[in-house]
Specification:
Helices cover 52% and strands 17% of the residues. It is of the alpha+beta class and 318 residues long. It has an eight-stranded mixed β-sheet, sandwiched between helices. The longest helix has 43 residues. It is elongated, with a radius of gyration of 25 Å. The two termini are 13 Å apart.
Amino acid sequence: MNKHIKKPEDLQTTYDETKSGFLSIAIRKSKEACFYIEKGKAFKKIVSDYNDPNELIKIGNIQDSLCEAAGVSTKARAYLKSKDIELILSEFSEEFLVPAGVNFVDELVSRYLLTLGDALGGRMRNIVGGIASEKLTQHIIATLQVRNYTFSYFDKRASKWLDGVSFRTEISPDVKAIRWVTNNQTRLLYYDLTVPIVKKNIDIVVFNNDDVNIAHTEKFKAFKNNPSNYLILGELKGGIDPAGADEHWKTASTALNRIRDSFSKEKISIFTVFIGAAIEAAMAKEIYNQCISGELTNCANLTKDNQLIEVCDWLVCK
């Protein structure tokens, strides 16, 4: 149990913490939006060179962008034949662009930006989840460095292990796994792994040894199929919106129960942990009670540094 949690209220996300979380996401979204805005400007520049919207359909190198403006998804484009796509674009032009007259460019660009807005929304949902794992990674590596533990991390872009001395904060999004030694015991932490015994994707997985190269697919497959290799499994929920907090906890709680049940059937004791950013009163009480009873081994509020530092030290030293 986290020593900084003495009562359920200690787990609750405060108004100021929620406000700070929303602000960080808003700033990040504004930065991400810059690229999409530039795409919109580039698209407007190209289509502005034409007086007839139907002429645009004949320009092969902007057809994908025209499809986006018309609402034809990437998946649909992969399925449809070229002649069918041209037919859709012709009907789109006759229905919406031609009636706009001299303002057809504004009509087209507005619809293009709507599609880009959807893309930005999808990217932000991935980013919000990614921010949580980035923050956890940074705290774990900070703990490893302070304790002077030798460690390495698996860079998913380079698809190889790199020495911990090369780690920089900006690399955090690319860290897929971390390995180290504590009390003469090897440890391997892996993010977002489908655990065969549970048959579900688990956010945080800590193995009790790292006697395998995760880049070697077949060997790692055999390694993760062995339930005795697991030490800690946990759920990480980075969403800050209080409105979705209960649903996130229900999903996490179900996953944690499935983990415990699956390993119990194999007569293997497993530690479980929950780390979340948006924790409301009712769920704080549930999480706290589960920790007190031993059902849940450890927990932390992602927005509270003292709790996060404590749980990261536990993950590193366990």
